[in-house]
Amino acid sequence: MFFKSSRNKKALRVLLDSYAQDIAAHFSLAKESVPAEWFHLDAKVLTVTLPFACQSQHDELTRIILQNAHAKEQGIDKVQINTQIPSFATHKDAVINIKNIVAVSSGKGGVGKSATAVNLAYALLQEGARVGILDADIYGPSIPTMLGNKTASPASSDNKTMTPISAHGIVANSIGYLVPEEDAAVWRGPVASKALLQLLNETRWPVLDYLIVDMPPGTGDVQLTMAQQVPLTAAIVVTTPQDLALADAQKGIAMFDKVDVPVVGLVENMSAYVCDNCGHVAHIFSKLGGSRLAERYALPLLGSLPLSLSIREYADAGTPLLLKADKSDAEKQIAQMYQAVAIQMGAQLSAGLELRAEQSSHLKGDPIAIQIE
Ligand SMILES: Nc1ncnc2c1ncn2[C@@H]1O[C@H](COP(=O)(O)OP(=O)(O)OP(=O)(O)O)[C@@H](O)[C@H]1O
Questions:
Q1: Would residue 222 count as lying in a domain?
Q2: Is residue 142 domain-shared with residue 192, that is, in the same domain?
C-alpha cells in the first residue's frame, strides 16, 4: 500500500478529502455526500467507485483528479472509475430484480412527463445504468408510441408472468401493449391501481438499476394510491414554467410528501423556445418558474429542457433522440441536457437516501445486458 506510517495516514485523509471536494463540486453535491469509501488507493492507482451512472463524465473526472495538487504530490498516475449502483431503502418491500423505482410525475397533463421519462431512461442507459420503464399512465399510455413498438405484446410462457418488451437497450411494459386504449380509459380507480401493480409484479424484469415509472398525470386518488402501493425509491416532478402548471406541480410534491416518498428533483420542460432561423429565445410558458419552485421547496432542479421540435418529433416517431448516431449540434445539446438530468438524479439519490439494509436478496435473475445501439 502507498500510505503506511501514521503521518501518511494523515496525508491520505487530506488527499481523499480533497478528491471528495473536487467530485462534490463537479456534481453539485455537498462534500459530506462523497464519503471516503468511494476511493481506493493502491500504489499509484486511484479507484473511484461511484454509486450512480455518469460514463460521459469519466474522462473529465480522471482529468480533475490527476490535476489535483495532492495527487501530483503523491505521484498518482492512474485513475480507474467504476459504477456500482446500490438499492436504496423504501418503505415497502422491493420488487424482484429492481434496485430502485423512480416515478416521473406531473400535477398537470400534457407537460411532457412521458417524453421526459423516456429520454431520462435512455440517458441513464447511455451513462451506464440498467434501465426499465413502466407505463403507469393507464388512462393514456404513450410509452408504446414513444418506444416505437405500439404493436408489440409481452410474451408469457406460463400464463402468469410476462416478458417485458425490449426497446433499444431498455425493457418496458405498458397497459398499452395489453389492452385496447379505449378499454383502459374507462377503468375505475381501484381497477387501474390493481392493473399497475400487476404490471409491476407480474413482469419478469431482468436485474435493473432503475425502473422509471411514467405516472398518470394529476394528483387524485388513483395517483395517490399508486404512489402508496408501489415501493417507490423517489419521484421526479415534471412541470412547465407557467403558473398553472407550477400550482399543480406543488400538489404533486405535496402528494409524494403525504406518502413519504422523497422527491429527488424537478424537471422544467418546455422552458423556452429557440427559433431555428434567428436564434431568438422566447419564454412561451413564462420564465424561471421551475427554478423558483425548486427554491421554494429546497429541491434540486435536475434540468430545464427547451420547447423543441426535435424532442416532439423523436418522441412521437418512437425513435430515441439520445441514441441517434449523427446528431445535429442542437440535438447534441438536448441530449446533454437529458444526460445531465440522469446524472443529477443518480447523484441526488445517492446523496439523500439510506441504503436498503439487504442489498441483494431481491436480485435473483440476470442483469439486463447493456447494449447501446
Ligand atoms: N420539450 C418539448 N418540446 C416539444 N414537444 C414536447 C416536449 N416535451 C414533450 N413534448 C411533446 O408534447 C406532447 C405531450 O408530451 P407527453 O405525452 O410527454 O406529455 P405528458 O405530460 O406525459 O402527457 P399526459 O398528461 O397525456 O400523460 C407530445 O407530443 C410530446 O412529444
A1: yes
A2: yes
**78-83 β-sheet, strand order:** 39-42, 45-50, 78-83
Q: Kindly state whether residues 165 and 33 are assigned to the same domain.
A: no
List pocket residues of ligand 1, CB cut-off 6 Å.
106, 109-115, 137, 140, 142, 217, 269-270, 305, 307-308, 311-312, 315-316
- Is 41 in the same domain as 125? no
Same domain, 155 and 245: yes
- Which pLDDT tens digit goes with each residue over 305-362? 999 989 999 999 999 999 998 999 889 999 999 999 999 999 999 998 999 988 888 8
Please say whether the dihedral angle defined by the alpha carbons of residues 90, 95, 96 and 98, taken in this order, is positive or negative.
negative
Domain holding 120, by residue range, is 98-352
Does 112 belong to an annotated binding site? yes
Q: Which set of grid coordinates corresponds to residue 183? A: 378499454
Q: Which three cell numbers stand for residue 204?
A: 419478469
Would residue 148 be called left, alpha or beta, if left means φ above 0 and alpha means ψ between -120 and 50 degrees?
A: left
Please indicate, yes or no, whether residues 170 and 316 belong to a single structural domain of this protein.
Answer: yes
Q: Which residues of 172-208 are buried (b: 16+ CB within 10 A; e: fewer)?
A: bbbbbbbeeeeebeebeeeebbebbeebbeebbbbbb
Same domain flag for 36 and 150 = no
**Is the dihedral angle over the CA atoms 128, 129, 135, 140 positive or is it negative?**
negative
The verdict on residue 121 lying in a domain is: yes
> Is 140 marked within a binding site?
no
Counting from 1 in the atom list of ligand 1, the atom nearest the Cα of 216 is 27
